Amino acid sequence: MFNMKIHQHCEDAASLAPEIEAVIELFNNDLKGISFPDVSRETLAKQAEAYRSLSREVAAAAATLSKLREEASGAEAVLRQTTQRGLAYASIYAGAAADRLGLAATVTALQERIHVSAQAPLPRGADASPKRRGRKSSTVGDSLFPPASIAAEQTSEFTCETGD
């Protein structure tokens, strides 16, 4: 028997794979009125409709899940910003008085933990440094106009003699 997997490349999530459609069409046309012990035109129609119905539910659930993931990601970003501000406030508060050394140590430890977790390893294939655009940064030897001290040395080495 040929492979009848879910056809995922169609624009409509509830559409059937072409080979399944072809068998259903065969039973709707050439085999109309013919039935076999467990396969008939009606059986295929019921199963196709059950598949379409479930596919629509899956598509709706996937859309809902995607939207919820985006909302959760946004909420996490807002929470991270708020906690960073809170930690900055706590750092200032802890450093304002000598009797808050314990609090200052706790805040510093948290800041270090957050700094380390922000530098966690990137997923495989990700580039840690952003791509640079434009010219390479120049060094003293690459400069179009060298510093005055170097220019003066170069000028003194080359003197022009005139016929005077």
Q: What structural class do helix, strand and pairing data support?
A: mainly alpha
Continuous helix count = 4
Q: Give the terminus-to-terminus CA distance.
A: 105 Å
The total count of strands amounts to 0
Rounded mean pLDDT score:
78
Low-confidence stretches: 1-11, 155-161
Radius of gyration: 36 Å
Helix-strand topology string = HHHH
* Main beta sheet: none
Into which percentage range does the β-strand content fall?
under 5%
Indicate the overall shape. Answer: elongated
Helix content: 55-70%
Describe this structure in words.
The protein has 164 residues and is mostly helical. Helix content is 57%, strand content 0%. It has four helices and no strands. Helix 2 (41-95) packs antiparallel against helix 3. The radius of gyration is 36 Å and the shape is elongated. The N and C termini lie far apart (105 Å). The relative contact order is 0.04. The model is unreliable at 1-11 and 155-161 (pLDDT under 50).
Secondary structure topology:
Elements: H1 18-28, H2 41-95, H3 101-118, H4 148-157
Entry keywords:
single chain; disordered N terminus; 57% helix; 164 residues
What is the gist of this entry?
The chain is mainly α. It has four helices and no strands. The longest helix is centred in the middle third of the chain and has 55 residues, at 41-95.
